[in-house]
Write a structure and sequence with these properties.
This protein is an alpha/beta fold. The chain has a single domain, classed as Alpha/beta knot. It has helices at 52-59, 76-79, 118-128, 158-168, 172-192, 196-204, 208-211, 213-219; strands spanning 11-13, 36-42, 64-68, 86-95, 110-115, 133-136, 231-233. The strands form two sheets. A five-stranded parallel β-sheet has the order 3-2-5-4-6, sandwiched between helices. It has a two-stranded antiparallel sheet with strand order 1-7. α1 (52-59) links the parallel β2 (36-42) and β3 (64-68). It is globular, with a radius of gyration of 18 Å. It starts with 10 loop residues before the first strand and ends in an 11-residue tail after the last strand.
Amino acid sequence: MARSVILAGTIRCDGCCLPPRWCLCAALRPVVSPVAVDVLIHRRENWRPTSTGKLVARTLQGSRTHVFQRVDPPTRETIARPDRELWILHPGGEPVENLLPRPADQPAPQVLLLDGNWGQAGEMLRAVQGWGRLVRLSQTGASRYWLRSQERLDQFSTAEALIAVLQSLGDMEAAAQFGLQFELHVYATLRARGHKEGAEAYLKGSRLPEAFPEFLTQLNERRRNPSEPGISRMGPYPQPERLD
């Protein structure tokens, strides 16, 4: 594959964080679900345009994001929602199957997603330990997150964890709609990096050509003026301060 063409100083869209040539904002479709979702993004992940935690915030209506800072960690009061059982997704939790089906008179749970690599997720988990119920998802198959090599064979992206929990709770429509937004994000980022062959291979296992035929055609043909509103020069990304 060609080397990445996303460089420090690249002009990026304020919404999707992609270069304007590959901006996805016109294809954004809000997703509605009774599940309350919060994303705790590690401070080092917050500057990455590949973060799928940010995709959750842009797409899922009512979702919230919180940036994790070691020197000023969040409190339970700032994250937990009243009258909702808090599920913290982590591979070390109890199987989600043990919690289903939920009583019909109970609202859907609040789900807290930890957005970061394996080590960062462990750091955030220690900060939120005891806030709610640790829940493990049963995810099988290969990850569709082709933007980074995963550190573990059973590791999936934050967005894929959300898809799995929506499916577990029976919200198949929201899971399917968010899944399309996730795959569109991966595809456009592969193209922005210059990985055309990889992006085409990605489409072969996707419903994107069926769901967004006109947009994909326009995406692969257009040139966008960087002076358009909503476009800013983001980068080089600020480096987080060392807290060691």
